[in-house]
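Lab notebook page, bench 4
Experiment: in silico fold of construct C2
Operator: M.H.
Input chain length: 350 residues
Purpose: comparison with the prior construct
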Amino acid sequence: MTESERFYDVAGVTFGVKLEAPWSFMHYTEPVAERIKIAAAGGIVPVMPTRAGDSEPPRTYVQKRVELPEDYGPHVLDFSQYEPFATEESSKIDFRLTVCNGQPDEFRQAQKEGQVTKLMSETEVLPYYYVYRWKEGTVFEFEGADGKIDSTLFVENGAESGYFWAGEKMRPYSVIFQICFALRIMYTYNSWKYKAVLMHSSVIAHNGSAVLFLGTSGTGKSTHSRLWLENIPGAELLNDDNPVLRIEDGKVNAYGTPWSGKTPCYRKANLPVRALVRLHQAPANEVKQVKGLDAFAGVISSASNVKWDKKVMDGVMSIMSQIVMTVKCLSMGCLPDKSAAEMCCAETEK
C-alpha cells in the first residue's frame, strides 16, 4: 500500500483505488480513526437508518467539520467509509480504479465525431448516467444536479481496469459520491465470479442471522429496519442500502459493505441469511411466504446487474435463482408501526 493507492476487500472481492496527483487520500483525525477501527472489527458505530424526509447525516465517518485534518483541501478525498475493509496489497486484485488527473478529452472528441455507441441511460435514480461503447470498453457519464455531465468512468473490457475523471469544479464530497457509484459498477462486473451479488436492501442482524428488506425506492425499507431497532430486542443494523449476498458452501451469507446509501453504516461483518422480505405499503400488516418464480420475481429487481453484458447478467440471474431456492422468501404488506416489525420478526423465525 502506498500514499497514492489503497486496497480493499469486500465479501472476498479485492480491489485497488489509485489516485493520480493532485488527488490524495485523507489523513484521518482521532475520532474518525476510532469509528473506522470499530467498524473494521464488525462493531456498531451508533447510527439509525435514514428515512425519506429525514435530515441526511454525513455519508462518511467524518461527521463534523472539526474532524477534518489540517491539510484538507479541494483535492483531498475522504475514503473513511472504505477503510474498515482495507487490506494489504497482494497478487489477487480483481479490479483497479484509477482516479485520473485532467479530463477524458479523447472520448469527448470521439463523441463529437460520432465514434461512440450509446447503449442506455438511467434517469430515474440519482446519479443519472449514460452508457456508451467506445474502443475496447464501456463509458459511463454521470450527470450532476445542474443537468450537466459531472464525471466520466471508462471500464476496459474484462472490467479489471477502470479510469475515473471528475468534473473540473466538483467538490471533494461530490467526487467521492460519484467514485462510490463507479466502484459499485466495477464491483458488479466482477463479483458474480465469486457467487456474490450487490443488493439494494436494508439489512438487520438479529440472533446471529441477517434479514434483508427489499422493495422499490420509497417503499419503507429503512423505516422498517428502524422499527426493528426500536422494538425488537437484539436487533442491529448491518447495512442500510447495498449489502452483498454471497453463496458459500451451499449457504447464503450477507456482508456489510462501504455502500450504505444515506446511512453511514460500514461494518465489516457477515452473517447467514435468515430471510429475504419484499415490502410493500398496505392498509394492514400481512405477510406470506413465496416460492419458485414468485420468489425470484420478488428479489431479482433488487440485485445489481449490468444489463448490456450478457455474461454478467446470466451470472447474476443464476446466483439469484440459487439464493431463492436456499433462503426463505417473504412478501409483506405493512404499516410503519411496531406490530409490523413484530409480525415480520416472528414470521422469519418460523
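Observations: The chain has two domains: 5-27+69-193, 196-348. The mean pLDDT is 94.
Next step: discuss at group meeting.
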